[in-house]
């Protein structure tokens, strides 16, 4: 694969310029640099291998050569329904980056369903699960100029072949890959095409109430007991009862109280699985 071949393979999608890299630290970092150099809306960075792939909460994301999908899409604010965002906090209701992460996870789950008949769920806020194991992850990062959002970088990693999975000892959640579930080889470029197709299609729905219900319908552990772990190590236990209109996770704490968990530095674990 090279930039020319990939540009040709994706030419029927309304994307900006495409950059294919055989090996890079992180496609998100590369895309962020490209944002600063003036990348147009919907520019795409794809890599075969990442040596410093970034996961959420400062974790590493493993992308060995020839085994996974790793790409980052640059979205300028006007293309994602963000008019004049305030840099109040990443979890403020006006801040759409949580929805962008969901857009990435929804596009992956839709591509897996429509192209490969795989039922995928979304472990709020950013993991795509198949058979209750993580098959893909989404990392949205924002670029700012003062208080102005200049672009969002939507980074997606998908475990395609068995080689894409790190050793069990390095996992903090069970993982699986597309080829193991399907029992056959998958052309990575076909999967990439399909994910991007759904991303582009659903981008326009991101600020509509339907978007939240589509997301809610794919939530993993709905009506099940989970534990939410916050960045300070404190935890919150409750039953997932859906999403708020902003995409926050609604948890039934069990004594008649329902609370909303905002995005940001939280992770979620099922209880008794
Ligand atoms: C997570 O589940 O923690 C998020 C993982 C996101 C990984 C992707 S791979 C492409 C892009 N580049 C990165 O460095 N990270 C994202």
Summarize the structure.
The protein starts with a helix and ends with a strand. 25% of the residues lie in helices and 33% in strands. The relative contact order is 0.14.
Note down, in words, how this protein is organized.
With 273 residues, this protein is an alpha+beta fold. It is built from six helices and 13 strands. The protein has helices at 3-9, 27-36, 97-116, 178-182, 188-203, 209-217, and strands at residues 18-24, 44-54, 60-63, 68-75, 121-123, 127-130, 133-145, 148-159, 225-230, 235-243, 249-252, 258-261, 266-270. Strands 1, 2, 3, 4, 5, 6, 7 and 8 form an eight-stranded mixed sheet that branches. It has a five-stranded antiparallel sheet with strand order 12-11-10-9-13. The radius of gyration is 18 Å and the shape is globular. The termini are far apart. Mean pLDDT is 90; it is low at 84-94. It binds biotin (BTN). Residues 26-28, 50, 53-56, 59, 61, 70-72, 126-127, 137-139, 155-157 line the site of biotin.
């Amino acid at each position: 694969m090279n930039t020319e071949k990939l540009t040709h393979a994706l030419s029927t999608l309304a994307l900006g310029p495409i950059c294919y890299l055989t090996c890079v630290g992180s496609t998100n970092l590369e895309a962020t640099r490209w944002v600063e150099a003036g990348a147009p809306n919907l520019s795409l960075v794809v890599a075969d291998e990442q040596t410093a792939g970034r996961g959420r909460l400062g974790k590493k994301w493993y992308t060995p050569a020839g085994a996974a999908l790793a790409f980052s899409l640059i979205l300028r604010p006007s293309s994602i329904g963000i008019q004049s965002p305030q840099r109040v906090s990443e979890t403020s209701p006006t801040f759409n980056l949580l929805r962008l992460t969901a857009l990435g996870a929804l596009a992956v789950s839709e591509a897996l369903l429509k192209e490969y008949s795989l039922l995928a769920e979304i472990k709020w806020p950013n993991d795509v699960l198949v058979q209750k194991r993580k098959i893909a992850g989404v990392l949205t990062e924002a670029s700012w100029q003062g208080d102005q959002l200049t672009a969002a970088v939507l980074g997606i990693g998908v475990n395609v072949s068995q080689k894409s999975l790190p050793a069990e000892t390095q996992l903090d959640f069970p993982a699986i890959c597309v080829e193991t579930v399907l029992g056959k080889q998958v052309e990575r470029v076909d999967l990439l095409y399909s994910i991007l197709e759904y991303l582009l299609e659903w981008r326009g729905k991101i600020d509509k109430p339907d978007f939240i219900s589509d997301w809610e319908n794919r939530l993993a552990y709905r009506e099940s007991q989970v534990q939410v772990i916050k960045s300070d190590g404190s935890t919150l236990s409750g039953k997932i009862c859906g999403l708020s209109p902003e995409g926050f996770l609604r948890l039934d704490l069990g004594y008649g109280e329902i609370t909303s968990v905002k995005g940001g530095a939280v992770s979620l674990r099922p209880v008794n699985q």
